[in-house]
Design brief:
Number of helices: 17
Number of domains: 2
Radius of gyration: 22 Å
Shape: globular
Number of strands: 13
């Protein structure tokens, strides 16, 4: 489906069902766009794969391929400003995450030049794209002093670099938030400050016989890994050790597995091992849980009276401190890169530079879309659109944040599946230690194979 924004903007979107409107707010940056494989959109996404030669004419558009996300929607509103700057029309094709990945695989394997700017997930696919030579090296361009590359937060900035080359620029960041019921924690003196507090308060507030839960969170084997990562870091662990070997068999990782398993097993809802974001979030939104930790990007769902019963009682707090302190993830959830095969690389960089400039990041953050520049986070005006306690929580989580929420490997899906196995064992009340040992062995072997793939 093609949506034309006259006189100069063209947006192509693809949507379908998956997450119901009852589950997700349609407002602000907490909005999650979901869609599926429409035949017309699929044909649009996969057409014109053959590489072309020759310089494009002045009427050729700069083509941006993006996730159907609130950032893409917001930046498109400012396209006329950029088009006036470069004298070239901009088109943006917006797809679901799966469609976007499939389109990249088909097009870039064919060295297609009909994509100029690519919206990518630095933690999910950048290693693969780098190995395949699909992302242009932006190192020299980001060294321009006027661009101020060092203004980007270190964690997202570091994740933009592969083998010493800057291959993407972060435009959207994400951290976990502790969502809690303010009316239920008054007798405890407020929100839990530590993971021990979270567990004890969840145990006390849970009334599972009457379908009220102390804590709800992701429990699905692969889907839970990203949110569990903050528990892992705050226990002093990580997915890998400094030498690159598996870290999920360490005492710190075992403690994080056991903690998370107990939290959900003893205070969470039934069937939680089948729950990812789409299933867990509505339980808190409907007032059936005291605490919930998930992406800060979904906060507006709890303020929308159309889907939430807790809009007057929800509070927002930083990630609670574990034995190693409060160490949440702070990640570049979406970044911009340039197609190696683009014939408009200078204009593509002009777009990336404009879209990630201090002025644009501040403008979009003031609209509720968290960026990656420290200058924006240091400006209170850019945080005014968020609830005050959420803004402060986001700021603190960003300061303390770790720059990845999953293993940094090429085969991310397979890695998450391995890492998630002990997590599920803990939720089911099984002895976590032997499961973690087996997973550690499997993950170690996986990392050897994956590291070989990274030798490019």
């Amino acid at each position: 489906m093609s949506l034309i924004r006259p006189p100069t903007r063209e947006l192509v979107t693809a949507r379908a069902g998956g997450i119901t409107s009852a589950a997700l707010s349609r407002r602000s940056f907490g909005k999650l766009f979901v869609a599926a494989a429409g035949a017309v959109a699929g044909a649009t996404a996969l057409s014109a794969c053959a590489p072309r030669t020759g310089a494009p004419g002045p009427d050729a558009p700069l083509r941006v391929m993006a996730i159907n996300h609130v950032w893409s929607q917001a930046i498109s509103e400012y396209f006329p400003e950029f088009e006036d700057l470069i004298g070239r029309r901009v088109t943006m094709q917006m797809l679901t995450a799966d469609q976007l990945s499939n389109s990249y695989n088909v097009k870039l394997n064919a060295s297609a030049s009909d994509i100029d700017v690519m919206m990518v997930r630095a933690l999910q696919e950048q290693l693969l794209f780098a190995r395949n030579g699909w992302l242009a090296d932006l190192t020299g361009r980001t060294e321009d002093a006027d661009y101020d590359w060092l203004d980007f937060q270190q964690a997202p900035r570091d994740r933009s670099i592969t083998r010493g080359e800057v291959l993407s620029v972060p435009v959207v960041t994400e951290r976990p938030a502790l969502y809690y019921r303010k009316d239920l924690v008054e007798d405890f003196g407020g929100a839990p400050q530590t993971l021990d507090d979270l567990l004890s308060m969840s145990l006390e507030l849970a009334d599972r016989k009457n379908s009220f839960f102390g804590y709800v969170g992701r429990g699905q084997r692969s889907g839970a890994v990203t949110q569990w990562s903050s528990f892992l870091y705050s226990h002093g662990g990580d997915f890998t050790l400094e030498d690159g070997s598996s870290g999920i068999g360490t005492p710190e990782a075992l403690a994080a597995y056991e903690y998370y398993g107990r939290l959900l097993k003893e205070t969470g809802p039934p069937g939680v091992t089948n729950m990812s974001l789409e299933q867990a979030m509505p339980i808190f939104a409907q007032g059936k849980a005291a605490f919930y930790i998930d992406a800060d990007a979904i906060y507006s769902n709890f303020l929308d009276p159309g889907i939430s019963t807790v809009q007057d009682t929800v509070g927002f707090a930083p990630f609670p401190a574990g034995p190693a302190g409060s160490k949440p993830h702070n990640i570049p959830s979406w970044s911009l890169g340039i197609n190696t095969f683009s014939r408009l690389q200078d204009d593509a960089w002009a777009f990336v530079r404009w879209a990630s400039s201090p002025e644009m990041v501040a403008r979009l953050q003031a609209e509720g879309i968290p960026g990656a520049r420290q200058s924006a986070w240091s400006d209170p005006a850019t945080l005014a659109s968020f609830p005050a306690d959420l803004a402060e929580s986001m700021r603190l989580n960003a300061e303390n944040g770790i720059g990845h929420d999953r293993p940094e490997v090429i085969q991310v899906g397979r890695a998450r599946d391995i890492v998630g196995r002990p997590l599920v064992a803990g939720i089911l009340g099984q002895d976590v230690a032997p499961v973690a040992r087996d997973a550690d062995t499997e993950f170690a072997e996986f990392l050897v194979r994956d590291n070989r793939q990274q030798e490019f």
